[in-house]
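If you are new to this repository, start here. Below is one unmodified record pulled from the training split, so you can see the exact layout before writing a loader.
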Amino acid sequence: MMRRTTLLTGCTALALALGATACGGGGPVAAGGGDKALGGQTVTVAGVWTGSEQKNFQKVLDAFSAKTGAKTQFISTGDNVSTVVGSKIEGGNAPDVVMVPQVGVLQQFAKKGWLTPLSATTEKTVDAGYAPVWKKYGSVDGRLYGLYFKAAHKSTVWYSPDALDQAGIKPPKTYDEMLKAGRTVSDSGLAAFSVAGQDGWTLTDWFENIYLSQAGPEKYDALAAHKLKWTDASVVKALGTLGKLFKDKRLVAGGQKEALNTDFPGSVEKVFGPKPEAGMVYEGDFVAGVAHDQFGKTIGTDANFFPFPAVDGGKAPVVSGGDAAVVLKDGKNAKAGMKLLEYLATPEAAAVWAKAGGFLSPNRKLDLAQYGDDVTRATAKSLITAGDSVRFDMSDQAPAAFGGTKGAGEWKLLQDFLRDPSDPKGTAARLESAAAKAYQG
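And here is the target side for that same chain:
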């Protein structure tokens, strides 16, 4: 979420970098309806989104309202989706639809009996327009409960072209080259990386890209399922590799202390805001939405990226993630909520956010021309065509207590590691202890 010295941009650059094929796609398919059949009804939707993401998702909800007559109400849960939704269910105030950001949370909700299986209409649309992997991650015990509406390409490193041009940097091909390039950026007057350590999920993404490339997909899958212990030597090695960056004061903007006080939007601001403090920020494709919406950057010109580089001779990683829409049984208007999911499954709904930016859809039937710039268009193409090489965000597959809770589990332990990266082996042991407890629960 870089161009070479000649600064290739857009679809061509990303296709070369990520192996994407030519940009293109099928045309939008109408969602049907439009007869205001849901007039007078209100669908409540809970999700983690705030800021520009919430604003852009509201455009999708408004389009649903215009089509069906239903009103919508969005409730921002913060990062602790599981806790907030659970308390609302217990209090008799359950939302109708939840946008779930972790596979583990979706599985937890289904096993607690909170979810309604998706309608035959939605499942048919998913079968026709989505790669099987998205249905797999949305299903529990063979039943489809979650519709992946928003996807993420989490193997992108975003940068300011001006900053890197001044430093004379070429896109790094390996992790060690990236750290070396970062030190050159630092010598030119800016820190290399802005790190969003206040948000533990960003640190899990750093780890996952390193681990997938360094340890390989088989071990990645085993660790994600906790069939491999976090005390394994491959985990200790990956933490050590990550620690090379964390402990280098030339690489992290403001050092470790400031990184721990920087949230994700703040990390983007440090690179693309009015007073830049760093040349690069690692995170997913959604960095583009913040850079464009909040700081007016033109994607591909003022903000660009290079693929997360290969580690220790491994393949460059492709880590994905996504937000799945689910329908709660206890919602006061669950039937209208199911109609919302039928709409969200269509390319028509995806096109609304695609035009707004900061969004990728896993729906293969969405016309890629709906994306607002060539960089995003090519990112979307590379994601949906990546096939078996893609791995879903590991922390999102874990139980929420380990991989998806603010101030606990992997999020907190990696924040502790950012604060003091001197003991990878000890951190691995603490991760294993937390993981074992969460998976047993």
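Two things worth knowing about this chain: Residues 36 and 429 are 56 Å apart (CA to CA). The domain at 17-153+320-391 is CATH 3.40.190.10 (D-Maltodextrin-Binding Protein; domain 2).
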